[in-house]
Predict the 3D structure of the following.
Amino acid sequence: MLDSRILLKSLNDLEVRIMLCKSAFEWELLAKKYVDVESNIKNFFKKKKIPENFTTALDSLRASLVQKKGELPPIDLSDFFK
Amino acid sequence: MGLIRGIAEAVMEKAKHEVKDYLIKFMEEEKEKEKEKGTEKKPEEIKKEDVVPVVKKESVKIEEIKEEENDDEDILPLIEPEFIKFTYKVKPKDFTIPGELAETIKMLPVEEFACFVKLMIFVFEQKKNFGYLGNTLRRKIGLESFENEKFDKTVENLEKYGVLKIEQVSDNQKTFILYVPFDEENMAKAEYQKPEKSQQKKPEKKPFRKGDDDEKPAERKEKPVEKQDDQQDEIPGKAVFGMENDDLYKSYRTFVSLEIDKAKMRVGRSNFDKIYMEAVKYIDKKYGFKVLSDSEKFKEYLTNYYISAFDIPTFDSWKKTKV
């Protein structure tokens, strides 16, 4: 049985890992993880409203991910134009 | 009488000795002949022993090579399907292999099987059953352990088995189509589009310039069509099917690439990083977080952003200068 505290903890863990992220590859893994956690939270609170602390944590995490992606070196587009 | 007998006995005695000597000589000659024959036979035997295995080994090697060649040549298609390029109308929640396909691919050798499933997972992530057969594909699907040649060979074998089709779309570009049973309910055929059509739809965006700090690019760029899927066709940097053969469009892509590089040099590294940061934020806000984590889509939208940000002419205006 999934506990909401576990979900909250996974959000916190993810935040720490985002801070330590140093490569685009790592970022993609974290982004996938975030999407998974987000869908888990939505599934968990299917019939109820998602608590504010969760929405705040999700928003904050998403902002961190976007910020981190912007801080990482710009992706190389040379392959894309080949 | 005694004298005659004495002479006869002497003759007999001498004859005996002569016969003895003759016999001894004869015997010795026979022995020598036998010895000579014996020494002549041995080398022959040795030669035979040495030569035969060498010939055998060589013939075994040749047989092995022939077998290998035959293995490659003898790949017969497991199926002969009609290859349809499609996209998923709505991306299924889970990746699944249809039963019919599973029955077919379970007969593939382990390397071909792994390659096929990895390719299938890779294109599934992009909601389709096809993709570019580029240099980075091997890495993207996680088959770094394969050498380039081995990977190419595996893909070729998959084509021979009839579960994959390779299309040469231009001199340098190839695409692959995976055989996945077409399901009309959940899939839509990927139709070919003319460049003009996509360019007509292209949103006219005001470029983001340095110094315009009051107005964020996201606020100024309100014109793009709302739906994400529809948006894909309108991206100037995107390789739309049917366009690959259009030399003019290929030239335009090269032009865009060069213009981006020039702009990068012009604005400097730190400014370029800032523009990139803005692009990331804009794309997230405008198209959603999923686009950020989808490498191909992100590149498409990023190119679009750069085109606006660096005042790179759109395809239509660029085309006019060429005609």
Remarks:
- The helical segments of chain A are 4-20, 24-44, 52-71.
